[in-house]
């Protein structure tokens, strides 16, 4: 992964949104990818967080513009504001909490109904370190509740990318983004504007956090997809 501005490399960007129940590890997963860091205790995301990172993908550099959404039910109505226009989505669950897998299926169905028709969706089972003997403290271990075979079968039925990951142990984190970059059609990627573009910058920093708990409107796409109603 590099951030070099080689004039011979095509530079593109894509919008990606991370969805899933609260406390499945979305923010920790994203910070492991962006900063190669892990923090055990994080405050719940409020509204959404925004981070970016540029990666190499063959002869192309892709800038990921990532919206990290809050998992609490009270923020659900805000989600369409983030996945509208997205080229990719990560739907995450906790392999040690079966109810979060059910919630992930609900997000997949919503994306298939309302997100852009060509969106690439990755189903990600996080926290595998809790049930594979990688914890230093036995009290931190947990029993797996969603089996790999069941999740993989569901992903195949719904034409989703599928990964099991650990944000803490840095298992498969980079692989998720690499595979997404490979699967988003080139024509769906937006070119990065060259320096000196006349378009005024929004002024947003790469690590902005957006609090939309007050006075936000609910904007919902009405596009219906013909994909699997999983």
Automatic annotation (TrEMBL):
Family: Belongs to the small GTPase superfamily. Ran family.
Residue stretches in coiled coil: none
Tagged with keyword Oxidoreductase: no
Top-level division of the source organism's lineage: Eukaryota
Compositionally biased spans, kind Polar residues: 213-230
Organism lineage: Eukaryota, Fungi, Fungi incertae sedis, Mucoromycota, Mucoromycotina
Keyword Protease: no
Protein name: Ras family protein
Organism: Hesseltinella vesiculosa
Gene3D superfamilies, A to Z: P-loop containing nucleotide triphosphate hydrolases
Start and end residues of each stretch annotated as Disordered: 189-230
Entry keyword set: GTP-binding, Nucleotide-binding, Nucleus, Protein transport, Transport
GO terms for cellular component: nucleus
Recorded GO MF terms: GTP binding; GTPase activity
């Amino acid at each position: 992964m590099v951030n070099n501005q080689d004039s011979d490399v095509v530079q593109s960007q894509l919008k990606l949104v991370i969805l899933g129940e609260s406390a499945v590890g979305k923010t920790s997963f994203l910070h492991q990818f962006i900063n190669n860091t892990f923090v055990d205790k994080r405050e719940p995301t409020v509204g959404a967080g925004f981070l970016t990172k540029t990666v190499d993908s063959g002869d192309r550099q892709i800038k990921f513009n990532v919206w990290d959404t809050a998992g609490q039910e009270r923020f659900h109505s805000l989600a369409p504001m983030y996945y509208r226009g997205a080229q990719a989505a990560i739907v995450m669950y906790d392999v040690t909490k079966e109810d979060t897998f059910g919630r992930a299926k609900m997000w997949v169905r919503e994306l298939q109904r309302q997100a852009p028709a060509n969106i690439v969706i990755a189903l990600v089972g996080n926290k595998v370190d809790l049930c594979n003997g990688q914890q230093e403290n036995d009290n931190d271990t947990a029993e797996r509740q969603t089996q790999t075979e069941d999740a993989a079968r569901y992903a195949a039925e719904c034409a989703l990318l599928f990964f099991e990951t650990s944000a803490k142990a840095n298992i498969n984190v980079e692989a998720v983004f690499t595979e997404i970059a490979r699967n988003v059609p080139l024509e769906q990627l937006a070119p990065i504007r060259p320096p000196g573009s006349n378009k005024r910058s929004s002024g947003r920093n790469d690590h902005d956090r957006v609090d939309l708990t007050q006075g936000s409107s609910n904007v919902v796409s009405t596009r219906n997809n013909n994909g699997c109603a999983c």
